[in-house]
């Protein structure tokens, strides 16, 4: 291992530079990003071929037999899987399967050197038992799943803090082999935690993709989008509306509900087709339902309009000069009011401001 070819170090440095350059692209779907991504993947694959040629890792070795500088090459499969997941377009299932294989090789390599912790080793066994439904926590117990996520988050946070602390003095790492070894192992532990999360995400995505309709072979025309187009394309009755025609909604052929209460066909609670048509192009605000004359006529019918004068109308009737009795009553009333004003002059009741 000490006689490691320089080409491996050069290839790995080149691959790392390309991988880090990918983070500077704002759009991962752009053509330059995908081209650089393909170049980085090819470089990592070349690194794997060189590692296999020189026999860098052997099942007969232990972790102590690997030099601190060679520990970084254990992450080649991990980086390769991460890059495969960033590919857009093409056969997504194929990329997911390839990434899962690389993640699995990465974990098995670490397990052969007893680098995995006990909890990570149990997760690896759980993954190998059923990779299609792998989950880091119980999918039925929400509390246990939450606790697992919290503990994983705290673990990753602590690893990142430790890794950042060890990287604060890069010059010291060149002369301190133990510090370099510690930073490499810490980085590997962080990648292991992220690997299990990626494997869980891959399993979920594979389940979703399994429900998608199969892609037709190249050269075969795609079928029409739905039954409406298959049945009505080219006919006068075809419509781009999502709902069916009104005649279908109001069709009275066949029962609406089954014996156990399940609806057998679409139905509406409105009574007539005319009401359906009226409610299509009406404005958002409420329209008047009667004219002003109709409203006044309705108020008159309900007794809300007073007619014919009287005391309630507030109109005083004209005095009748021929009615002598009425005139005498008015005269007596006026004289009584005059006498009252003479007996009670203005201000006579104000006793507070008198001197």
Automatic annotation (TrEMBL):
Extent of Acidic residues compositional bias: 319-328
Segments for region (Disordered): 214-263, 302-355
GO-annotated cellular components: cytosol
Basic and acidic residues biased stretches: 225-243, 329-345
UniProt-listed InterPro entries: TAP42/TAP46-like_sf, TAP46-like
GO annotation (BP), single: regulation of signal transduction
Name of the protein this chain belongs to: Type 2A phosphatase-associated protein 42
């Amino acid at each position: 291992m000490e006689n490691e070819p320089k080409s491996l170090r050069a290839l790995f440095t080149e691959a790392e530079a390309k991988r880090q350059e990918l983070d500077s692209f704002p759009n991962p779907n752009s053509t330059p990003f995908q081209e650089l991504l393909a170049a980085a993947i090819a470089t990592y694959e070349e690194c794997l071929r060189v590692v296999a040629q020189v026999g860098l890792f052997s099942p007969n070795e232990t972790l102590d037999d690997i030099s601190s500088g060679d520990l970084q090459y254990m992450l080649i499969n991990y980086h390769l899987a991460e890059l495969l997941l960033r590919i857009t377009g093409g056969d997504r299932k194929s990329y997911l399967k390839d990434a899962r294989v690389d993640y699995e090789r990465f974990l098995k390599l670490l397990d052969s050197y007893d680098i995995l912790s006990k909890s990570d080793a149990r997760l690896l066994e759980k993954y190998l038992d059923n990779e299609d439904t792998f989950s880091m926590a119980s999918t039925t117990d929400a509390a246990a799943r939450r606790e697992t996520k919290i503990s994983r988050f705290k673990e990753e946070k602590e690893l990142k803090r430790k890794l950042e602390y060890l990287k604060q003095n890069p010059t010291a790492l060149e002369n301190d082999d133990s510090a370099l070894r510690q930073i490499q192992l810490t980085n590997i532990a962080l990648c292991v935690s992220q690997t299990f999360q990626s494997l869980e995400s891959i399993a979920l995505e594979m389940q979703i993709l399994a429900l998608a309709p199969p892609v037709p072979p190249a050269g075969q025309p795609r079928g029409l989008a739905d039954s409406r187009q298959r049945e009505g394309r080219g006919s006068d009755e075809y419509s781009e509306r999502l709902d069916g025609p009104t005649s279908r909604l109001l069709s009275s052929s066949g029962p609406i509900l089954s014996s156990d209460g399940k609806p057998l066909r679409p139905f509406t609670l409105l009574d007539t087709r005319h009401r359906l048509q009226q409610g299509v192009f009406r404005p958002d605000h409420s329209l008047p339902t009667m004219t002003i004359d109709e409203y006044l006529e309705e108020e008159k019918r309900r007794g809300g309009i007073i007619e014919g004068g009287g005391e309630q109308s507030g109109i005083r009737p004209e005095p009748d000069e021929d009615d002598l009795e009425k005139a005498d009553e008015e005269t007596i009333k006026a004289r009584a009011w005059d006498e009252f004003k003479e007996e009670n002059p203005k201000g006579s009741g104000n006793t507070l401001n008198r001197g």
